[in-house]
Design brief:
The chain is of the alpha/beta class. Helix content is 38%, strand content 13%. The chain has a domain of 266 residues: Amidase signature (AS) domain (Amidase signature (AS) enzymes), CATH 3.90.1300.10. A hairpin with a 3-residue loop joins β4 and β5.
Amino acid sequence: MKLFFSRICLFLLLAGCGADPVPVEYKEFDIASLQKLMQDGELSSVTLTRYYLQRIESIDRGQHGLNAIIEVNPDALDIAAALDKERQESGPRGPMHGIPVVLKANIDTADQMATTAGSLAMAGHRATADAFHVTKLREAGAVILAKANLSEWANFRSTSSSSGWSSMGGQTHNPYGSGRNPCGSSSGSAVAVAASLTSVAVGTETNGSVVCPSSVNGIVGIKPSLGLVSRSGIIPIAHSQDTAGPMGRTVEDAAILLTAMVGRDPADPLADAFPQAVPDFAANLSKDALKGARIGVLRTHSGAGNDVRVDQIILDTVATLESLGAEVIDPVEIDTEGMGAASRTVLYYEFKADLNAYLENSGAPMKTMADIIAFNNEHADEVMPFFGQERMLEAQSKGLLTDREYLDALALSKQISQAGVNNALAEYDLDALIAPTRGPAWMTDNVSGDHSSGISSSSLAAISGYASITLPAGDIHGLPIGVSFIGGEFSDAQLIQFAYALEQEGYKRVPP
């Protein structure tokens, strides 16, 4: 019913504003190119917005669609028209002026779209205020185009879930292969960018939920340093790891979006740690940024060495880095024993506390995690047809954030992860680490759940709270493989420079 209603809204939205086919294909245009067309009077935000709405209707909807979009913004064309008028009267606000953005459906918007985290338990929940980074996007002139499907509750409901599936939106599909999984939890955001249903999109990550779907869908994804992007207005998993992050078809596009999202939010407990000076992340990008850089190849990651094809992509990348003037140290090993177990304990405790706080203060239909668990049990045929809610039950069994078990686990997870990165950078005199982001996309399997190759390098940056960026590095039988740069705290700008330089040497997406 929900998807049917969304489709009717999209049909009426297009019909109400003229739905003639857009004569130009904008699907591979980057933000800079779109802005030049707008400045030259050859493109309007209304035309661009309508173009993406038509693509959503034509390739995302229906039985054989990608199913990346959970809901379109019925005000999108009106917003675009107002921004076109403003451009004519006073010029653009900046590089995001008139550019459509898709948001993951766990991000608050104070408009006609719901914020549900993909759960039927949250159906109809409309936030009373924008998430802080959404406010920043609106101020930058972005058109909030739609909400993206996701792994329900950001993939923290079950231990045997299928990434990209939610009870609100169904299963999102990877555009690079029939039946292939899009990874998660920011599945719809990544697929929307990969399939050019939008210019750029916002995902969220606790551990891998931006970089994994970006990698397997062949796009660029940035996991910012914790606290760089405000965490307020996002349905949470865990405040010690959660962050929103930008996703784009190019490094520059993702950097432009990140710049628009960033700001010091007094309501975020990390506001005092916010950097005094935040750069324009898309400014002065240089193809020579890797010249003289020292890059370490991280060999301590989950599933290391279990796919020789991925290993070859990394070896090829090392050669490219060296050709660009970087000095590569291979291998760099980091002892992460005990980090994962400690982090899982932290996530269970914080999920219960943080979600209960969000529900209590947001006017959501569910008031506690216990209410959600009960709803899921009562509506199991719709909500749990394939997998259960083991993670929610484990989180519900936890105590308060003053419990010694939680405090010890938090301290241990941060100590291992942060010391691991910091010590490696210091010992080898490195500017950054590099590693495969993930193996190739696996087949979606609602019976057994996710069963990927196991290769994943997201945990160090996620648990430490440090920055990482993934970009396309090659493919295996047409399935994209990403490579990640990982750095220290607030190394975001430097990592973006490194990624841009590598991108200019052919590390670019191949459209699906």
